[in-house]
User: What shape does this take?
Amino acid sequence: MYVARAIAWSCVVASIQGPIGCSGDDAVPEAGPEARGSFAVLLVERARFDGELPSSRYEHFEMSGRVARFSGIERERVAAILGIDGLDEPVELDSCDAPTALSLADDVAVEEMGRAEIDLVDVGPIDVRAGSRSLRLEPQSFPGLLDVLSGAVYGADEREGIEWSSGADYSFLAGGALDIGSFEAVGSAPDELVVLRVGGDDPTLGTAAIERQLDLLLRWEPGDQRDTLRVDLTWSQLGTEMRLECNAIDDGAFVIPASVLRQVPEGAFAVSPRVTMHRVRRRSFAAPGLDEGVLLFEQSETFPVRIR
Assistant: This one.
């Protein structure tokens, strides 16, 4: 049975005790009791990791869904708690953010959790079709946590007879629930993400080198320019997971300036550095009774790198 890893239990618990590695979001303003909303998010994800050794290489496919109603907490914080990365389009493309710790911000504290409520709605089975294959996502219930988060989640992976297929159409049909009408989401998975160069190296042939004093050119086979190409440079620094995030137009090339790379520590101070490139496609759909519906496709390629 699929276990919904997308619900970041450790993130929620740690938000009471202190920050841990969950989300790199900046602190958001304190949410008042009037903060409320709802959304349905359906995700189709395929991740590959190209390790230095054949034994460390893997590929994982996952399909999941959350239908959420919330109050007393901001929408962005709800997405972070539910493990939804990429709910919104980037504010600015062809740009990079400063490095941040992959931790849930301290502002999700006891007093906020005391007034917040997140209800993950059971909308009945969700029927999925991908090409000639079909699958039914059944709601999976779990007990409430601190009277804040409760309800049902949806999920499946490659063990359940469905897989990632670039260019294929995926359709989702849900029957609805009290005050939520039936809804359908249809979209096609983006083209295969083929990474060509990280700096001067082909990352599929060996560990690429990143020179902090030089601009870093990334190349890949271009896709649909309506999609987003997100680049994450991640590393461990004194026991804390760090991330430098950039967002680019999916046109086949992007440069991370040396001025940005110099914010990354060199050598032994950046442990287990890696570059992950994500091709992200967002499609909106109507969900009666909810504020919004979003269908997300994401495929990612991760490569180990050396930072010099």
Notes: Residues 78 and 265 are 32 Å apart (CA to CA).
